[in-house]
Amino acid sequence: MQILRKTNLKALAKAHALGQEGVIALIERKGLEGRGGAAFPTGKKWRTCHDTQADERFVVCNADEGEPGTFKDKFIILNNPKTMIEGILIAAYAIGAKRCFIYLRGEYEFLRPKLQRQVKSMLKRAKTDVTIEIVRGAGAYICGESTALLQSLQGNRGTAMSKPPNPTRNGLWGKPTMINNVETLTCAAQAVLFDNWKPEVRLFSLSGNIQNPGVYEFPIGVKMSKVIKAANPKRKLKAVSFGCFGGIMPVDENMAITPETLMMEKCHHGAYSIIFADETNNVVDLSLSIAKFYTYESCGKCTPCREGTVRMLNLLRKIHSGEGSREDLPILCELANHIQETALCGLGQTCGNHVLTSILHFPQDYEAYFSKK
Questions:
Q1: For position 372, what pLDDT does the model report?
Q2: Which of 213, 202, 243 is nearest to 69 (CA)?
Q3: Using CA atoms, how far apart are residues 47 and 25, in angstroms rounded to an integer?
């Protein structure tokens, strides 16, 4: 796997030889995009943070992997932590930061002791005055959002903040802060060192009704049939869910998995997490489970998300109990669209995707509950 290639501090040495401008330009040329879900150009983010006038800058490694069905960052921390740490040091050098943080998901506390030893070892070997502090996450899905993460890092309640300003210009303690995902920083070190590093390769987290769950590496554009073959389902598949916010769509073995093809089905690739559902599942059950998650994880700051997630959950519970009717579906869609258009952060802006896509692609599953009346 490309993600398991070790850099052994050679990438950091090359970065220092290139200089700050040189390493940022290299990341831009290599086409590295963020692996946390938004796919924002990494080089552009680094350049913005570097060019913002300030007396201090920070680097934050986002290891708050809270998206259901996503476990690729844990895989990296377990199997190639030193390359990730080297990526942090390269990012710190590129933007001129001396203090770095790893915001580790609260549920990953068991990874912390070994990771702490790896950090200490890498800093000693690199002979650097840069510091890396591991901060335990607050156990909230919202803290994966950049501004909520920074609030939590500063000891505040993890709630999203209005943007702009963006953290690259005004982040931790009002200073420019560069936030990158675990996979992104690992790839940054590999992209600097290896000429044959491939930007189109992504980590896929596969789970659900399959016999081979786990982390796999595929290029963007891989056929769904190849992914399904690796996953090895027990029974005929019915639907795929792209994490929580990516939406739910029917299985199309001939589909090439790209952002564009998924958008044609009103879905999003996110962090390339795929949860498989077979013919024994009803998609309404899946939507209900996701709705419970969003209701529980909403930070409650903005009214559309705080109230809207509860309303959607209650309507889905009504349908699931057999007490719903077809008239509930347009109300569900209206709620989902309204929340997406008015919510403050990405959680609220995506919390209705599962509802909209499940109604679009699987109306028969809703009909099955209406017929129970």
A1: 62
A2: 243
A3: 9
pLDDT band at 33 (very low <50, low <70, confident <90, very high): very high
pLDDT band, very low/low/confident/very high, at 22 (cuts 50, 70, 90): very high
Q: Read out DSSP for 138-200? A: -S-GGGGSHHHHHHHHTTS------SSSPTTTS-GGGS-EEEEEHHHHHHHHHHHH-TT--TT
The CATH number, out of the four listed (3.40.50.150, 3.40.50.980, 2.60.40.1120, 1.20.1440.230), of the domain defined by the range 283-370 = 1.20.1440.230
| Mean pLDDT, residues 108-121 | 96
User: 201-278 in CATH: which number?
Assistant: 3.10.20.600
What is the pTM (predicted TM-score) of this model? 0.93
C-alpha angle 305-308-313 in degrees, rounded to nearest 5: 120
CATH code of the domain occupying 2-193:
3.40.50.11540
Domain ranges in the chain are 2-193, 201-278, 283-370
Contacts of 143 by beta carbon, 8 Å cutoff, 6+ apart: 64, 66, 103, 137, 149, 152, 158
